[in-house]
């Protein structure tokens, strides 16, 4: 019965905590018995059981109860299989979602070598816009998980694609996570690449995208180490433009303030 398997999954985390606390008495019980069940239920035929399995896995990862070897040899391979191009649509959407959620809980090396290539592929999934939407919504978290070098080399090109996606919901999701993406890049990339990209979002044909971009304007500016070097200002018609570095700031400029300093501090938590 699916309800029995679902209830079982809900009991796995507390049992795992007990086994961890009593490890001298049960040194291998979790790895030999419980972890295989969690992995198996990620592919269960019943979606409620799969959901319970996914939630259990995330709790186990968050509490650092899963061994690195199990993550690399058991968890990641099954998620890569479920998110493959020929995978069932429902399984793929669920796999992408859990990959994005678990990225912040894994080591940078594991994410970059095992999950990042598949994430980049999924950003360009032409079959399911739901997959691209999940990627766009979690883009900032993935950037933060892999760091600046991988972000600029592999993720920024994909971010450009998503920011020009034909589905407006995708562009809106990109606008909402723009600050998190910008925070992971170098000042030069922010100035030369992300600033023009942000202008395209704030000038988007869809009002919902423009609204999300305007709400992200302050947080985006806060990611610049020196607010006065942001090079952005608001024109009289309300559009964002880039100011040449030698030009004086006019009355419409985004003036540095204490608020920007505070927001910059909060960005460190991203």
TrEMBL record:
GO terms for cellular component: cytoplasm. One of its GO terms (molecular function) is protein phosphatase regulator activity. The keyword Repeat applies. Gene3D superfamilies: Leucine-rich Repeat Variant. InterPro entries: ARM-like, ARM-type_fold, HEAT, HEAT_type_2, PP2A_Regulatory_Subunit_A. Keywords: Repeat. HEAT repeats lie at residues 115-154. PANTHER family: SERINE/THREONINE-PROTEIN PHOSPHATASE PP2A 65 KDA REGULATORY SUBUNIT (PTHR10648), WW-BINDING DOMAIN-CONTAINING PROTEIN-RELATED (PTHR10648:SF7). This is PP4R1 phosphatase. It comes from Copsychus sechellarum.
């Amino acid at each position: 019965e699916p309800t029995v398997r679902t209830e079982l999954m809900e009991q796995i985390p507390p049992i795992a905590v007990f086994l961890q606390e009593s490890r001298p008495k049960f040194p291998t019980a979790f790895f030999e018995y419980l972890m295989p069940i969690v992995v198996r239920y990620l592919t269960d035929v019943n979606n409620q059981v799969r959901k319970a399995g996914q939630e259990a896995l995330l709790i186990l990862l968050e509490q650092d109860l899963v061994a690195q070897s199990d993550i690399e040899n058991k968890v990641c391979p099954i998620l890569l299989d479920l998110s493959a191009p020929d995978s069932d649509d429902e399984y793929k959407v669920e796999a992408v979602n859990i990959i994005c959620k678990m990225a912040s809980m894994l080591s940078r090396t594991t994410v970059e070598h095992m999950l990042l290539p598949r994430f980049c592929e999924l950003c360009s999934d032409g079959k399911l816009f739901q997959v691209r939407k999940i990627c766009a919504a979690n883009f900032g978290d993935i950037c933060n998980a892999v760091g600046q070098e991988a972000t600029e080399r592999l993720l920024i090109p994909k971010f450009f694609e998503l920011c020009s996606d034909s589905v407006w919901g995708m562009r809106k999701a990109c606008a909402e996570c723009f600050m998190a993406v910008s925070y992971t890049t170098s000042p030069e990339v922010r100035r030369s690449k992300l600033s023009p990209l942000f202008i395209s979002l704030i000038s988007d044909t869809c009002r919902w995208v423009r609204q999300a971009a305007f709400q992200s304007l302050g947080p985006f500016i806060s990611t610049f180490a020196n607010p006065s070097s942001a090079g952005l200002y608001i024109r009289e018609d309300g559009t964002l433009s880039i100011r040449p570095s030698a030009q004086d700031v006019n009355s419409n400029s985004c003036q540095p303030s204490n608020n920007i300093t505070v927001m910059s501090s909060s960005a460190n938590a991203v």
